[in-house]
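Handoff note, outgoing to incoming analyst
You'll be picking up this chain. Sequence as last confirmed:
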Amino acid sequence: MSLVILLVEPEEALREAVRENLREDGHRVWAFARAGGAAEALSRGDAEPALALLTSGEDPDMDALLAQISACATRCQRVWIAPEGRDEVDRLAVARRPRGLLSRSRLVEESRMLAERVWRTRERGRALVQAPTLVGESEAVERVRKLIDRIAGSGSGTVLITGETGTGKELTARRLHALSPRGHGPFVEVDCASIPANLLESELFGHEAGAFTDARGAKAGLFELGQGGTAFLDEIGELDLSLQAKLLRVLDTRRLRRLGGREEIPLDVHLVAATNRDLSREVGAGRFRADLFYRLDVVRVQLPPVRERGNDAWILAQVFLEEASRRLGRPPLAFPLSLRKQVLAYPWPGNVREVRNHMERLALMTPFDVSEVGDLDLPNLSERNVERFRIDFSRGPVGWEDIERNVLKEALRAARGNVSEAARLLGLGRGALRYRMSRYDLAIEGGEEEREAA
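Most recent structure output, in case you need it:
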């Protein structure tokens, strides 16, 4: 914690006591007996204070100092050191119209508390600027923003983010982290669907040398790496039951033990989990532990799909088209208003991710000498699911792997190669679908860079 603080106080003992206490808290303090010395330091550029503690006593150079602060340190918060006696305070209030007063008799203690509040306010403002943005103006998105802002302040309490594939669960987790008191700590994430179950335990909890065949050295897991920050478990609905039990124990005890280890490691990490599954249904089907579900579902952030966000699809399309044009180094590309109806009529099954990727494709495929998008080239959803998928048992038993392979192929065909939409049709996470595709060596026709629109 560090601020540049300007202090003007004629009484030397009090001035030095305040300066030493603020320095102990890590602040840089420029202390002066008179306003003239402070004004001279500001004019030289020696300091640009975030907070100015100013004497209320007679000082002929105070007005000049105030003008200098206004010119050189526009964001500086000015606070007056209140004189003793009610009449003196009243005269100060009339003359200076102070935004804040510090008691002279308690100046050492109150200045420290004030400096901490100013620092927290500045850090909050910096976090808001740096935090990932949830684009949109709909009431649904505004409710999500307000909920995130409300729960981010504590940096504690497990958060469960739910919503369809592509609605922005990772971005929401990153915003929660950035706005929390842990925003300066690490943000570590793992996709529970993309890592095989036999490796995921090591990724989460770490291992000691010799814990298994390939464990040649010790390794810290996700939770250890996230100490002091946030651990994000994406697609937590894909976690198998044995790992669910171990995760529950870690959350309850706030301690973990590496694979092959004996020492229990205390944890200071904020857990944020996300899923596109209905975990209450998974509990009912016996695929997810009820106790872990209730432990995760302390605070829930439900992200709305694009089709339920009104005009946001149009806003998202414009923002992402502008970003894609800038990223590709091409002249700015804009939408004519005539295409607004098409953008809003299309359901965007891949949600925000599909909007972003489709806009990037438009920016890439539109000639550089064209300044407006002429055709959205959106998929025709009416062509989907025309045929019913059938399994032929007439030749005898059919292996489960053949059935799964064919189901995956059918879902990809119905989704026109859109991986996120195929995952939604199958009730899987995108990472889980990719894992199964790699297992059966399934590729997307036409190239993933053209088909992956979610």
